[in-house]
Design a protein that fits this description.
The structure is a homodimer.
Chain A lengths: L23 E2 L4 E2 L3 H20 L3 E2 L5 E3 H4 L21 E3 L4 H10 L5 E10 L13 E10 L6 H17 L4 E7 H11 L6 H9 L6 H9 L6 H11 L2 E2 L1 H9 L7 H20 L5 E4 L12 E10 L5 E12 L16 E6 L1 H14 L11 E5 L5 H13 L4 E3 L7 H11 L3 E5 L1 H6 L1 E6 L5 E5 L5
Parallel strand pairs in A: 3-6, 8-10, 14-15, 14-16
Antiparallel strand pairs in A: 1-2, 4-5, 6-7, 7-13, 8-11, 9-10, 11-12, 12-13, 16-17, 17-18
Helix pairs in contact in A: 1-4, 1-11, 4-10, 5-10, 7-8, 9-10
């Protein structure tokens, strides 16, 4: 196979059809992916997988359904969104809700105490779909997690570095990675006077600050959740704080917070985290944000969330939605171990559907032509009755590892064959004719430039 | 990034753990994939996907569940194996049973009349699992299909060529691709005197010939299905025939078969198919086999099934199971089109779980070491207190696109760092020490040969 350098992914000036949105299965909150959407999806996946591999991650896979009891009690209020399978005899099964709980089950079941793995797979939520925003009932998650007992904040810092690398490589605009720590939140709740039994529910209320105004969150705390207005206001002072190392230093001096063991531990480790992020050179996109709470129950330490930024009319940078999130969960694996053995974990999930939506919009807005196949040569004929010769040549090309096609017609017109190349972006066409066959040569034409060369048949392979 | 040529997938002489079978979730007929199993799976997938792309295929994806009614009436007796979702309000949903019906639904819904696509995804069957044979309730299918109105047998021949290329490339042993045609079967049933209403059920009985003796199939035909013994015996004479072009010629001369329009059409196209297969040079592995029937209702023309061969004690070649199968189904898409517009299709599915099992056994039996990561360099230190320097260097390597790792310990022992390389197959270790840092160099060691070179720091990137 010494042919010549074939352009693997050359783009051709074909007419681009707009991305087919009728393939969205609105009624059930799912979607088909057309070949064009698959090409975009593969591009996004390969950026992300390359990054995970650059950091030495392995990959695993788990079944799409788990025992119902495996998922029970892991998601708090969101459990109502779990899809159950019909009871057709046997165990009760549910579709997985995320990849974190199956990962924890996998670690416990296989007694794995150290692993750095990624897992890209679909998860299922009976949520209200909002397809234009990339919110579906079946959607991909891209998870990266580091499990193992290590020195503080080193794996946590690498997770943030990886999020930074992925969002930078995808070129989907400016972003900020918010970080906080459940220990700081819990310490803050304690010094504000929240009873410990209400930590999780107040945490859920704080989590809504990215979508609701403080006034509304405060009402929820005082009304539904029964906090005194003074305690709520005290929390309100803290959760408006965001910043960097100097804020951490300031809070370490805070007379109340610094007296709380949990908060002090969280703040000291946050300081360490920021030192590592400085070494990684990603401080500019990281914000220590006391309003970040994350909904899920299982986080125990650092939590993070990456949001895309956009300039509004007044040129202020505003958040347009979360695109990745995660944190440390040191207790989850132990819930699946018969002896409760803990495996500390930290990781994150990339909101890939959102990224697909953005990429699709970018492609639609740009002039870029997306090829959905990689075919390098179409084997064509200029005359009738050359089907056997075409089949013979295309077969030789396949056997030489060359990506080749032939039209499935006995006597296709040359024009139709050339049009097929233009439509699908095939860069080269090998044209057979009586004369060439007699001379033992093949005419090879560059579809875009129309330049032609005669190749001796055997040198083509 | 001008470093040097890094061995991307170099294998290291680490101790290989045997593949963990405890990760099989027996009770529900599903399995986890460990990193090692994923590495094998990826290898198989890449052989198959490369082949599909070599033939110019696009790819699509569809949801894991379909409307229950989409699957109804497509699988005959096997419908009882479909997994339903619990009715939690909204439409009734079922997990997909194969990828062919979703493909047909996709074509009809999007009014696509021409496509050559592959689809690799999991399907679900409430069957009795037999994990050692690679039979699960959740398993992958790799489907390739050509849809469109074309000249006879050209796409059909390409499908067989692709099966041949895949099974050859996988190197899993000798194989035979059996072919037959539903029209020949139906014509045969007609000339034997089977009433037309019994064609499909007698076809199902014939399909069992690969697992049951003729005597038992005959009993089923005469007993359960109510054929006369004479008709059954007549069928029995035909279904024992297998061969090549000469058998086709012989049957075209058969006084009864040749009078049947359907059978004659099927035989003439079978002859054409064999001419194309001759051009493709794959005749040796193809057998025209009148006992091949295929279970599913929707086939309308050519059917095929690839089986692996093994020598038994008497050195006779015996079949050890089906590994790919498919056929032509010209009516299925029309079932989903409101106006019944037909889109002729031909395609096949590769039984990938079976191939995984064989590959896993091959790897376990061989001395081959499977790496589960692609890490090229471990950044290590020879002394304490060099965490920041390690993090700085590994971060620079990541930013240069190099696959690198660092141990998540403040002060790891050099021995532990070297052991980590040996265990995971990392070929190179960059060792930092006070002296090297002062000199602005990094010591780079080849883990296998223990050769060391000093690199000026900036030339490493």
């Amino acid at each position: 196979p010494s042919l010549f350098t074939l352009p693997e992914h050359s783009m051709c000036s074909m007419e681009e059809k707009s991305i087919n949105l009728s393939s969205v299965l609105d009624f059930q909150g799912t979607r088909d992916y057309s070949p064009k959407q698959m090409a975009i999806r593969d591009r996004v996946f390969s950026v992300i997988i390359d990054c995970f591999k650059r950091h030495g991650a392995e990959t695993i896979d788990t079944p799409v359904f788990e025992l119902k009891e495996t998922l029970t009690g892991k998601y708090g209020e969101d459990s109502k969104l779990i899809y159950d399978l019909k009871d057709q005899g046997g165990e009760l099964l549910s579709l997985r809700y995320d990849l974190t709980v199956p990962f924890a089950r996998f670690l416990a079941m296989n007694k794995i105490t150290n692993i750095k793995r990624y897992h890209i797979a679909k998860v299922y939520r009976r949520d209200n779909p909002a397809m234009t925003k990339g919110r579906y009932r079946e959607f991909y998650q891209c998870d990266f997690d580091i499990a193992g007992q290590y020195d503080p904040m080193i794996p946590d810092a690498e997770c943030l570095k990886i999020i930074h690398e992925i969002l930078s490589a995808l070129q989907i605009g400016a972003f900020v990675i918010k970080v906080n720590d459940r220990r700081i939140l819990d310490g803050m709740f304690a010094v504000c006077g929240v009873p410990e039994s209400k930590f999780r529910s107040i945490c859920s209320a704080v989590d809504k600050l990215d979508k609701m105004a403080w006034e509304d969150v405060r009402s929820e705390m005082v009304g539904e959740k029964g906090l005194s207005p003074e305690i709520a206001d005290h929390i309100g002072e803290y959760v408006q704080l965001r910043g960097g190392l100097s804020l951490i230093e300031q809070l370490l001096q805070d007379p109340k917070l610094s007296q709380n063991k949990l908060a002090r531990e969280g703040l000291e480790e946050m300081k360490l985290l920021f030192e590592y992020l400085t070494i990684f050179g990603i401080l500019e996109q990281v914000s220590f944000d006391l309003s970040l709470a994350r909904g899920l129950d299982y986080y125990t330490g650092v939590i993070c969330e990456a949001v895309l930024q956009q300039s509004d009319q007044t040129d202020e940078s505003v958040s347009v939605g979360s695109i990745a999130g995660g944190g440390r969960y040191d207790g989850l694996v132990g819930m699946f171990d018969p002896k409760g053995r803990k495996v500390p974990c930290v990781g994150f999930s990339v909101g890939i559907e959102r990224i697909f939506s953005i990429m699709e919009q970018k492609v639609a807005a740009s002039e870029e032509k997306i090829r959905t196949t990689g075919t390098q040569v179409l084997v064509a004929s200029a005359q009738k009755k050359l089907l056997e010769e075409r089949l013979k040549l295309v077969s030789e090309l396949w056997d030489s590892g060359i990506k080749a096609e032939v039209l499935y017609k006995k006597n296709p017109k040359l024009l139709n064959q050339l049009q097929y190349c233009e439509e699908t972006g095939i860069p080269l066409v090998a044209i057979l004719g009586e004369q060439e066959l007699n001379d033992g040569v093949v005419k090879l034409r560059d579809v875009a430039t129309r330049e032609e060369v005669l190749m001796v048949h055997h040198t083509l392979l």
